[in-house]
Amino acid sequence: MIKVLYVEDEQSLALIVADSLEDYGFEVIHRENGQDALALFRKDKADILVIDIMMPLMDGFTLAAEIRKIDMQVPILFLSAMTQTEDVVKGFHLGANDYVRKPFKIEELIVRIEALTKRTRKIGPQILQIGNYILDTNRNTLTFDGKKESLSFRECELMRRLFENKDTVVAREDIVRAYWSDDTYFTGRSLDVFISRIRKYLAQDERIKITNVRGIGYTMSIR
User: How far apart (Å, rounded) are the C-alpha atoms in residues 151 and 11?
Assistant: First the structure.
């Protein structure tokens, strides 16, 4: 059974969502603020966290940042009415794996939870050699010359996808569909922000190039 730590201060919504998830077969532990959720997670980890952003005592962004200090792999899904691109990008930069906009259908939330928990139940190490870098897709880390950098889940997955398809154009639409579930805020410049960040991570090996194929997608090459 998948254990969901659900953090939401709006009691009526929390009751509906928790009951719906339990009816579907999930184990749901509900907390009303980030402070209580963090204390609970330290004692008893969950399989996935579903977190509101605007909450008392500790907001969702702060909670996600604190969770990532403890566990780099547990999936974090934000559930929020905050839909500005900068808010969404900030959430992913803090280590979130997905972002669902309120109002939402419970069926959509269930599909997202199932996808995230499947994706993170990998067996064995997932280590890739990208030029002079080592990418660990289990721990979401990138190592160069002994120095380790923590990546967000999507930064890691995007880097992995580009590497595994090196010298081939990876379509922008395929990236959005795979990692952002066709959400409209992840088109255009939003995706370019993630690509720019990956280029910076890989900048110390001049052989690695990520090229923007205008109107189509991106390609990674290593010479």
Answer: 34
Contact 81, 89 (CB under 8 A): no
The CATH number given to whatever domain includes residue 132 is 1.10.10.10
Task: Collect all residues with Cβ–Cβ distance below 8 Å to 46 and sequence separation of at least 6.
Answer: 3, 4, 5, 29, 74
Sign of the alpha-carbon torsion through 129, 48, 77, 174:
positive
User: What gap in Å lies between CA 212 and CA 174, rounded to an integer?
Assistant: 15
Mean pLDDT for the chain overall: 86
Name the residue with tokens 């909670």: 63
Give the predicted TM-score (pTM) of the model: 0.59
Count of domains for the chain? 2
Last-in-domain residue among 56, 91, 119: 119
